[in-house]
């Protein structure tokens, strides 16, 4: 977001430019036989509340507060929200509602909670106002042939499934431009918990196979929950880019 659009009363999204890139869908349109394309967001980076706090201070929205004060207040608010949510409340956080949900199947109405089968995570649903704001944003479609990693499928060897992760097992990831290379500290393959954003990183040296079309590695010792896979690479072993390119797998994977 362009922080210069922030006012003391509201955040103005009119000048916001969401970067997206188009990829072939590998499906033919019946009438004319042409390929169709789908859009994926080009994530700029991953930031935390300290970064947001700095934005607010720079623009003067919270000019009388320090970064530490803003982050401290936010952490206390988060703790209060989580306390309410995990006690059965649905919390309207302005940009959306947050709620807790219990995952896993039960054999009968008399079944008890089993942490080996069941787990609790948090859900989020956009509010109507935010959906209306997003509906008025015109994405910027990137042009050119920049090489971006694209995961097309995964296979968990232990379960032979494409939606499950087996901790300490093996995973095969297939796609395009997957080669993970570079010397930046953040370069690697990540398994990211969607509930708390905790990242389990697989270093380059731990990849059994690291090619443009396929990655093979051991899955870290992940706790039960839902995860996504993130690739961070400088794209090329022979001519690496200065900045790290990040690609997020769109499918959510489960650790039981």
Distance between the termini: 36 Å
| Fraction of residues in H or I helices | 10-25%
How many distinct helices? 3
Number of strands: 15
Q: What do the pLDDT scores average to?
A: 83
Uncertain parts: 1-14
Query: Strand content of the residues, in percent?
Result: 25-35%
The helix/strand order is EEHHEEEHEEEEEEEEEE
Topology:
Layout: E1 19-28, E2 35-41, H1 49-58, H2 67-85, E3 91-92, E4 96-103, E5 119-126, H3 128-135, E6 140-141, E7 150-156, E8 170-176, E9 188-193, E10 199-202, E11 207-210, E12 214-218, E13 225-233, E14 245-248, E15 253-255
Parallel strand pairs: 1-6
Antiparallel strand pairs: 1-2, 3-4, 4-5, 7-8, 8-12, 9-10, 9-13, 11-12, 13-14, 13-15
Helix pairs in contact: 1-2
Spell out the key features of this protein.
four-stranded antiparallel sheet; five-stranded antiparallel sheet; alpha+beta; 14% helix; 3 helices; 256 residues
Describe this structure in words.
By secondary structure, this protein is an alpha+beta fold. It has helices spanning 49-58, 67-85, 128-135; strands at residues 19-28, 35-41, 91-92, 96-103, 119-126, 140-141, 150-156, 170-176, 188-193, 199-202, 207-210, 214-218, 225-233, 245-248, 253-255. Strands 9, 10, 13, 14 and 15 form a five-stranded antiparallel beta sheet that branches. The protein has a four-stranded antiparallel beta sheet with strand order 7-8-12-11, with no helix packed on it. α1 (49-58) packs across α2 (67-85). It is globular, with a radius of gyration of 21 Å. It starts with 18 loop residues before the first strand and ends with a strand. Residues 1-14 have low confidence and may be disordered.
